[in-house]
Write a structure and sequence with these properties.
Lyase 2-enoyl-coa Hydratase, Chain  A, domain 2; 3-stranded mixed beta sheet; 2-enoyl-CoA Hydratase, Chain A, domain 1; alpha/beta; 15% strand; 6-stranded mixed beta sheet; 2 domains; 10 helices; binds ligand LUIYFFEK
Length: 256
């Protein structure tokens, strides 16, 4: 059985981390599979949104701590596998949703933070986890977490590794919404379909603007917005959106 399952339906590419016996801990094959899947998703116009979820009772417990047992490996070299997957998600010009149920720990939380939206089931437990094994946060966590919760809170979460429940995560802005476990799959699907029927190219441009804003001044962003708006303004979906407004009907976006 593959460690990464994928299914494309109605524009929604659902990726399932599939090592439930270890709460979907990352191994090298899974990381390389994720990176390749993001490259493929970027090229495939049928894909309009990606959902990342975990099989079994949790989302992802981070690096498989047994993968390198008895071996001497360079963490620096191994982190290239994470970089491919995390950068692949962040730079994919389509929305990526993390559907988090059960545990998201270590690089499993880093993965969720790299996604554009995080929907938590009511049983979710989020923890940075790295400091419990005397490691620093990796897989992009030291980039994403302070941008979501601020420097001071990020230090607290990274240094003390508390286990946050879904409501605590929501209060900190770590997740966008919390959904009861019984309706979790349905709510994730509903949101994914809504995004899949949206102006896909514009979503990609929104992601690009947000990435650039992380390191830009206001003046620079005014220029970036002007460049990106020029591109958005030439899409078929912009024409359709304006036509729908005039005709007082819902737009039918094609993603082009
Ligand atoms: C908080 C937990 C994720 C979940 O706790 P709980 O629900 O109580 O479940 P457990 O009983 O602890 O776990 C169930 C089984 O899964 C196995 N398992 C869990 N996590 C891992 C893991 N990361 N690697 C391998 N196996 C794992 C666990 O042993 C149980 O199996 P058995 O019943 O057969 O024993 C909790 O499990 C937890 O805290 N897990 C560890 C979190 C962690 O430290 N993750 C790694 C952080 S480091 C990282 O993510 C990234 C890197 C990157 C590069 C280089 C080097 C290191 O790290």
């Amino acid at each position: 059985m593959s460690v990464l399952l994928s299914e494309l339906d109605q524009g929604v590419l659902t990726l399932t981390l599939n090592r439930p016996e270890a709460i979907n801990a990352f191994n090298t094959a899974m990381l390389q599979g994720l990176a390749q899947t993001m490259r493929d998703a970027a090229e495939n116009p049928e894909v309009r949104v990606v959902v990342v979820r975990g099989a079994g009772r949790g989302f992802c417990s981070g690096q498989d701590l047994r993968e390198f047992e008895g071996k001497t490996i360079s963490y620096k070299a191994h982190l290239k596998n994470y970089a491919g997957a995390i950068a692949g998600i962040a730079t994919l010009d389509k929305p990526v949703i993390a559907a988090v149920h059960g545990a998201a720990a270590g690089a499993g939380l880093s993965l969720a933070l790299a996604c554009d939206l995080r929907i938590a089931a009511s049983d979710a437990v989020l923890t940075t986890g790295f400091s419990r094994i005397a490691l620093i946060p990796d897989a992009g966590m030291s980039y994403h977490l302070p941008r979501i919760v601020g420097q001071a809170k990020a230090f607290e979460l990274m240094a003390l590794s508390p286990r946050l429940n879904a409501e605590q995560a929501l209060e900190l802005g770590l997740v966008n919404r919390v959904v009861g476990i019984e309706s979790f799959a349905e709510e994730v699907h509903k949101l994914a379909l809504e995004l899949a029927q949206g102006p896909t190219r514009t979503f990609g441009l929104i992601k690009q603007a947000l990435r650039e804003s992380a390191t830009s001044s206001l003046e620079e962003m005014l220029d970036v917005e002007a460049e990106l708006q020029d591109i958005a303004g030439l899409t078929e979906d912009h024409k359709e959106g304006v036509a729908a407004f005039y005709e007082k009907r819902a737009p039918r976006f094609s993603g082009r």
